[in-house]
Design brief:
about 70 residues; 3 helices; about 80% helix; about 0% strand; elongated
């Protein structure tokens, strides 16, 4: 079976769905909320306003600190 045949198989399957479309819509909506909305509120960008040198120093210090914490 070639790639075009596989593609047609899935397209026909999705076209004939009734309840599945609603479920896929719910799944896509939940993924959008998880990856875009929650990221905006709970994972702010600490390095956004820093220069390249400040970013390098921050990341280096974090790596050293976390490595030393695991040794203890």
């Amino acid at each position: 079976m070639n790639v075009a045949g596989i593609y047609r198989f899935y397209v026909e399957g999705f076209k004939s769905m009734t309840t599945g479309r609603i479920l896929w819509l719910i799944i896509l909506l939940k993924l959008f909320v998880m990856f875009f909305v929650i990221k905006l509120f709970f994972f702010p960008s600490f390095l956004k306003d820093k220069t390249n040198e400040e970013k390098q120093e921050y990341v280096g210090n974090e790596l050293i600190q976390r490595a030393s914490d695991t040794l203890e």
